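Lab notebook: predicted structure, single chain.

Context: the supervisor wants predicted structures on file for every construct in the current expression panel, including those that have not yet been purified. This is the next one on the list. No modifications to the sequence; it matches the entry in the shared construct table.
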Amino acid sequence: MKFSDVIGHTALKEHLARSVDSGRISHAQLFTGIAGAGTLPLAVAYAQYIHCRNRQNGDSCGVCPSCQQIAQLSHPDLHFVFPVNKQGKKSGEVVLSTAREFTDKWREIFSSSGGYFDAQQWFESLNLGKTLKGMITAKEAEEVIRRLGFK
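Prediction complete. Output recorded below exactly as produced.
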């Protein structure tokens, strides 16, 4: 996803591009906003810009291998954690968002919506029914910490 694919946020996109171009990328960024505001697409566009090998005019090229991988949400340095659950889960079974069944659905909903979707739309895609809720487990949090320890 390129910055040009993100609706609005013009000043913020320019600021993020300038920070990368000047080599002043913070060690962490927190993107937050209300559903539909474009926070997720902006974060993905920023990650793509950071990894792009052929940045031009304040945007990623969209064609280099890194851009292609990020556009498919499959770049090895792009990590997502999102609430999951499933019907028929066995007692004690730990459900992680890194499971193939969930990453495929995540990529599908991101692709079909351009990244503009809310938690309810995500939960509906999981077919959780009326009683189950999506959640991020303690095991998932431990896995995030483990992955962030990689260089």
